[in-house]
Amino acid sequence: QVQLVESGGGSVQAGGSLKLSCVRSVTGSTDNRCDMAWHRQAPGKEREVVSSISIDGTTRYSDVVKGRFTISQDNQKNTLYLQMNSLKTEDTAVYYCASGSLVVVAGHLECHYKDWGHGTQVTVSS
Question: Does the pLDDT value for residue 104 go beyond 70?
Answer without folding.
Answer: yes
